[in-house]
Amino acid sequence: MSDQKRGFKTPFDHSTRFAQKRLHLGVCGSVACYRAADLLRAWRGMGMHVSATLTPGARRFVTPMLFESLGAAPVYEDMFSQGQEIFAHLEPGQHAHAMVVAPASADALFRLAHGAAGDMLAAQALAFDGPLVIAPAMNPRMWAHAATRANVALLRERGAHIVAPACGGTACGDEGEGRLAPLHDIFLAALKALSPQDMAGRRVMVTLGPTREGWDGVRFWSNPSSGLMGAALAVCAWLRGAEVTAVCGPGVRARMPQGIARRDVVSARDMFAVAAALWPQMDVGMFTAAVADFSPRPLGGRKFKKAEAPQGFSLDFLPNPDILQSLAEQRAPGQKILAFAAETAPDMNALLPLAHAKITRKKADLLAANRVNSADSGFASPTNSMVVVDANGREEIWPTQSKADVAWELCSWLLRM
């Protein structure tokens, strides 16, 4: 579903890692402020506690009752609203782990940059010393103005994370950069503000999704991988501070933040070429892609006609490069490798010998194996149950959990090695 419609999805929607985290949401006057309700709903769906402040301008578009009904508590209005705590302007700074202002108006950017504290939201921001995420939204000419750019530069210099506006049509009819960023970018920026930055300084490459091996002008040999597990790993590494490049097979639709560099490929040989070129600059390789081991010998660039083989026909298959094993053999000292194995097995215990054999054969540091013949694990499933082994002989069997939580645990295991 497009971010322009209600609702959005990311690989971390079902993570339990942020349950009980406390977030404060500031909503400013903008036509886009109704979209903050979807952000609130998404964070609350993860078990997070969210409080909110609506500026007077925001309350001309949406009501405090909307945010209260979606679970925000408390919802602040004016500095001296009747019945409000006298020190309400200090409470987010005392309780919230991160603060998000979305949408942020041009006036709000000025107040935040210059420490003006004449309204509730500005005062709360001034008293807040945790991570601050700001998603501006305004007319393109207002966004391009030197005064706005100077305020944004000052906020960035002080450590605020700016989720830059997107390009497109705005409510006033103008076209350009100024509309609120895609919701998944703001959603994930908040999660990053709540995440440990224990992978900062590391460069991570993730291969994900299927490959397609064409055998005529229109048909191909492939598999049903969605790339969701790899996307969860890419997002997880980015949330925890890594510089991430995702090498994506065809059909990968998982939403990843703009901070992740994406390289799209089609065939196994395409993926091998791109991954091999990137690998020398990487600290970690996460090889989750469901790469075709073989590709059919092409019958040409035209469409093969049924009339040409009324009794059926055969294809010759040729081996593809083994991306994981080839790059493992080329790795430099200090480079770490996380490998994946998609297997069909009767139960989780039956995966253990397969996983141990593969980690030795592929020369990986850590290997996660899952049963693709299980309904709650493997291709296109939002969850995975895993057998995990490492090069030191340690092994664990993980019960079914979201792929986001699997990714979090795998990143943590790699950091301990």
From TrEMBL:
Active site, UniProt feature: 172
Protein name (Swiss-Prot/TrEMBL): Coenzyme A biosynthesis bifunctional protein CoaBC
Bound cofactor: record note: Binds 1 FMN per subunit.
GO cellular component annotations of the record: phosphopantothenoylcysteine decarboxylase complex
Residue ranges of domain DNA/pantothenate metabolism flavoprotein C-terminal in the record: 199-415
Reaction equation(s) it catalyzes: (R)-4'-phosphopantothenate + L-cysteine + CTP = N-[(R)-4-phosphopantothenoyl]-L-cysteine + CMP + diphosphate + H(+); N-[(R)-4-phosphopantothenoyl]-L-cysteine + H(+) = (R)-4'-phosphopantetheine + CO2
Role, per record: Catalyzes two steps in the biosynthesis of coenzyme A. In the first step cysteine is conjugated to 4'-phosphopantothenate to form 4-phosphopantothenoylcysteine, in the latter compound is decarboxylated to form 4'-phosphopantotheine.
Co-factor(s): FMN; Mg(2+)
Region (Phosphopantothenate--cysteine ligase): 204-417
Cited Pfam families: DFP, Flavoprotein
BP GO annotations: coenzyme A biosynthetic process; pantothenate catabolic process
Stretches assigned to the Flavoprotein domain: 21-168
